[in-house]
Design brief:
Blueprint: H1 20-32, E1 45-49, E2 52-55, E3 60-63, H2 66-69, H3 78-90, H4 102-114, E4 121-126, H5 129-144, E5 148-152, H6 161-166, E6 184-187, H7 192-195, H8 199-213, E7 219-224, H9 240-250, E8 254-258, E9 282-285, E10 296-301, H10 302-305, H11 321-336, H12 339-360, E11 364-370, E12 373-378, H13 388-400, E13 403-404, E14 406-408, E15 414-417, H14 425-442
Parallel strand pairs: 3-13, 5-6, 5-7, 7-8, 8-9
Antiparallel strand pairs: 1-2, 2-3, 4-10, 9-10, 11-12, 12-15, 14-15
The structure holds ligand PLZ.
Amino acid sequence: MKRDEAIPTRRTLLTELPGPKSQELLTRRTGAVAGGVSKGFPVFIDRASGAILVDVDGNALLDLGSGIAVASIGHAVPEVTAAISEQAASFLHTCFMVTPYEGYVAVCEALNNLVPVTGEARSALFNSGAEAVENAVKIARSATGKQAIAVFDHAYHGRTNLTMALTAKSMPYKHRFGPFAPEVYRAPMSYPYRDGLSGAEAAAAAISVLESQIGASNLAAVLIEPIQGEGGFIVPAPGFLPALSAWCTANEVLFIADEIQSGFCRTGNWFALEHEGVTADLVTTAKGIAGGMPLAAVTGRVDLMNAIHEGGLGGTYGGNPVATAAALATISVMERDDLAGRAASLGKAMTSILRTLSEDLPGIGDVRGRGAMIAVELIQPGSKEPNPAAAKAAAAACNAEGVIVLTCGTYGNVLRLLPPLAITDDQLHDGLTVLGNALRQTCG
Ligand code: PLZ
């Protein structure tokens, strides 16, 4: 496809998937790329716009994954690509720690206004989600003088050594990669579909583990995804997050929210914590923040962020000028187009179609999520036994039709939808029709 040819707005397949050019590239990939990197769906992408990805064979695919919740404002948004080009033409890098520039400061100002932190906030910028989580833990330990960190069942916080310890699932993230960082403890997560507990009951169970197995005087912070992402789009029962955060405050334990997947308009609010009126001492963000450029942040209480000795936080590339320019453009598009509102209405449409479908399909155990972060959990009919084979088959059936959907979950039995918030109503309905057919074939 020529560069100047318009990208279609509808899903259009010209070949079987993957097509011949993608297959050639797959062969090259096998000869060049480490086998440990996930293969996903091997269609090689040439260009993209909005919610459409065009592959090297000219197939127009519908993206319901946003590169794992990154391209939330849509692919190749002109305001963002223009900001990137302009910054690239000015300068690419100085290292903020060596000679600073305005973009870094402006992103921190925006974050301090937007992120639900308790009281006045300060921010620091990094490259990846895992790096932000590592830094939040460093800040919490240094500011409190305590070492233990509590995380939850089904949690995902990254793949570096400390964040592997924080992540719950062994295969594929931790398998054979130990030993892991010490002073990490795991508490039960509120998982309404599986534990049947109210938010207050689930919080009491978690708090009892924190008190008996760690003790507040040893516990620097409780780290939690307000809606778990990789773990299965688990939305805790109402009241769970407020009860945990209240216990943290009462016991001088920091409450850290990992909003890396749930943040930046994804759930129908700027941040998922807002659904329960909770604020946090420290919040990690990444993914949707910069429209596709690698950028991450820790935003937190000014007294905590400023408790760290000068030089204690940083890195060569953190808050790179091009990434910060992209973030500022991304945030202004989110504000201008009320993408949080759009996420809420996409969520209503997805939930109502999937709930209707689940009435006919006993293999759908649960439909859940908030805003444009919606999932179906697949089970063996008549039980709650996870059915990962059905999730894999349904995702493969969608992929074969040119609709990108992702799976997740501790048991691998959850199909998740993370469409770009720029998706049109027609595109969403097309994607849900394909998904509905796939689910009918695989979990009837
Ligand atoms: N915290 C809540 O969702 C990244 C991981 C995909 P990085 N999730 C996608 C994979 O298989 O590696 C994530 C997250 C939450 C932290 C992270 C880590 O963010 O930018 O991938 O390091």
